[in-house]
């Protein structure tokens, strides 16, 4: 993953049929800024339905403390993926592997993913199939 403020150097080369390597270009890229997302949001989980895991992605326009929770059909937190974690504006990806906070597998069913970023709440349903 490219990080703002870092310099990256790339060397473009090719290898011919006789195994000779020719360096064509050397380029230097300085990554100077981070693009801010257009809004704070929780993207659709993928895949959904899922087995054995689903990828969760969220974006934030401002730096914020973030909580990302998985709730069962009774509204109980079964997995706390992030708990008031200080995050900078940007896009983040996490994976939920259908386990609870103790690392034990959860039963098949519908779960609610809840993102709290600043004063905003976003949620979506996911379906875990065994």
Quick summary:
This protein is mostly beta strands and 130 residues long. 0% of the residues lie in helices and 57% in strands. A hairpin with a 5-residue loop joins strand 5 (64-71) and strand 6 (77-87).
Task: Provide the fold topology.
Layout: E1 6-15, E2 21-31, E3 41-42, E4 54-60, E5 64-71, E6 77-87, E7 90-96, E8 109-117, E9 120-128
Antiparallel strand pairs: 1-2, 3-4, 4-7, 5-6, 5-8, 8-9
Describe this structure in words.
It is a single chain. The mean pLDDT is 87. This protein is mostly beta strands and 130 residues long. The strands form three sheets. A four-stranded antiparallel beta sheet has the order 6-5-8-9, with no helix packed on it. The protein has strands spanning 6-15, 21-31, 41-42, 54-60, 64-71, 77-87, 90-96, 109-117, 120-128.
Q: Report the average pLDDT across residues.
A: 87
Structural class of the secondary structure composition? mainly beta
Q: Return the string of H and E elements.
A: EEEEEEEEE
| Cα radius of gyration in angstroms | 20 Å
Please list the strands of the largest sheet in the order they lie side by side: 6-5-8-9
Number of E-type strands: 9
Q: What's the total helix number?
A: 0
What low-confidence regions span 5 or more consecutive residues with pLDDT below 50?
none
Largest sheet features: 4 strands, antiparallel
- What is the chains' assembly state? single chain
What share of residues is helical?
A: under 10%
State which percent range the strand residues make up: over 45%
Which descriptor suits the 3D outline?
flat
Distance between the termini: 33 Å
């Amino acid at each position: 993953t490219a990080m703002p403020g870092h310099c990256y150097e790339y060397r473009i080369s090719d290898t011919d049929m006789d195994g000779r390597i020719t360096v064509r270009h050397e380029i230097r890229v300085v990554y100077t800024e981070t693009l801010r997302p257009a809004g704070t949001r929780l993207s659709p989980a993928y895949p959904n339905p899922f087995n054995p895991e689903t990828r969760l992605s969220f974006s934030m326009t401002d730096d914020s403390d973030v909580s990302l929770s998985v709730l069962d059909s009774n509204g109980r937190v079964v997995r706390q993926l992030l708990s008031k974690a200080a995050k900078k504006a940007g896009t983040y990806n996490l994976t939920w592997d259908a386990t609870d906070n103790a690392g034990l597998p959860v039963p098949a069913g519908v779960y609610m993913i809840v993102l709290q970023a600043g004063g905003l709440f976003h949620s979506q349903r996911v379906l875990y199939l065994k």
